[in-house]
Amino acid sequence: MANRAYGVFGHVSRSFVVISLGLSYPASQMIDIHCHILPGLDDGAASVEMACAMAEMAIADGITHVIGTPHASQNHPFVPELVHQRRDEIQARFEGRLVLATGCDFHLSFENLQEIRHDAARFTLNQKNYLLVEFADYSIPQSLDQALHELQLAGLRPIVTHPERNPLIRSQPDRLYRWLRQGCYAQVTAQSLLGRFGEAAREVTELWLDAGAVHFLASDAHNATSRPLRLKEAFDQLAKTRGEDLARALLVDNPLAAFEGRPLPWVPELPDDAGLDGSAPRAPRRRKRFWLF
């Protein structure tokens, strides 16, 4: 059974150690950290019936935990009390079959950044310390680099959502790698790996997987048809092409750690050339470091 690399979080830098704990989780225990399952809050599930159909789909796919993450944006105001109410309504129908938690798809707006200073837990995944962060497709000001840094100084662990689908980040991968080097993480949409968001998204997903720049796969599901709540197909493809250890890291181990607010067990060290130009970077290094007691 493969060793796991357990991360130690720092405000602006990151290192990791290797501890052999013998942990292993089957694909039937996948955790989805990014999903728009909560009804009537944004452009996700439009009704309770749709939310229930998505939950049944998740259970059939082998997903055990889902975090409902409605948008927190100018177009979709985020009201935590209403979010928790919708979560409780759906959870009551699936008690013992699916664990539902709440978070949000946090847009880096001035208003949101002001709000999160007062009460970060209202926005974070399962009210722990990980935060999904979404960038706009049309503009990413340099000032947002400092905003990410300030979130980390406040003890939060930003996760950049679906960068492979953002044309600005795809064209400026050095910015993503800079965010990762300062301690952020990256979440890719499972359907992107399968080519369902276009060839450009699929190709850059493969490139970033090669570089060790992807820490989570999630569904980003919005409905039961065009944006389904499924992960197993992506797990199987990843296991077939890159090994089951990586599939478990991105779909089970890391998501579970984020769900519980623990350091991520799989954080590879980025190669020195990652993101410096458009060429494929060298494979990530696997240097082992050990706790000293």
Task: Report on this structure.
- The strands form 3 sheets. The protein has a 6-stranded parallel β-sheet with strand order 5-7-8-9-10-11. The chain has a 3-stranded parallel β-sheet with strand order 3-4-6.
- The chain has a single domain, classed as Alpha-Beta Barrel (TIM Barrel), CATH 3.20.20.140.
- The protein has helices at residues 48-61, 80-93, 110-118, 143-153, 167-171, 173-181, 190-193, 199-211, 232-242, 244-260; strands at residues 4-9, 14-19, 30-35, 63-68, 71-72, 99-102, 105-107, 130-134, 157-161, 185-189, 216-218.
- It is of the alpha/beta class.
- The protein is globular.
- Helix 9 (232-242) crosses helix 10 (244-260).
- Residues 1-25 and 285-293 have low confidence and may be disordered.
- The protein contains 10 helices and 11 strands.
Chain-wise SSE layout:
Elements: E1 4-9, E2 14-19, E3 30-35, H1 48-61, E4 63-68, E5 71-72, H2 80-93, E6 99-102, E7 105-107, H3 110-118, E8 130-134, H4 143-153, E9 157-161, H5 167-171, H6 173-181, E10 185-189, H7 190-193, H8 199-211, E11 216-218, H9 232-242, H10 244-260
Parallel strand pairs: 3-4, 4-6, 5-7, 7-8, 8-9, 9-10, 10-11
Antiparallel strand pairs: 1-2
Helix pairs in contact: 9-10
What key attributes describe this structure?
globular; 293 residues; alpha/beta; disordered C terminus; TIM Barrel; single chain; 11 strands; 10 helices; disordered N terminus
The separation of the N and C termini measures 25 Å
Task: State the helix count.
Answer: 10
What integer is the average pLDDT? 86
CATH topology: TIM Barrel
- The portion of residues assigned to helices is 25-40%
**CATH homologous superfamily (4th level) name:** Metal-dependent hydrolases
Name the overall outline. Answer: globular
Question: Pairing-aware structural class of the strands and helices?
Answer: alpha/beta
Number of domains: 1
The Cα radius of gyration reads 18 Å
> Any idea what the CATH architecture is?
Alpha-Beta Barrel
The CATH class designation is Alpha Beta
N-to-C series of helices and strands: EEEHEEHEEHEHEHHEHHEHH
* Strand coverage percent: 15-25%
Main pleated-sheet profile: 6 strands, parallel
Outline the low-pLDDT stretches.
1-25, 285-293
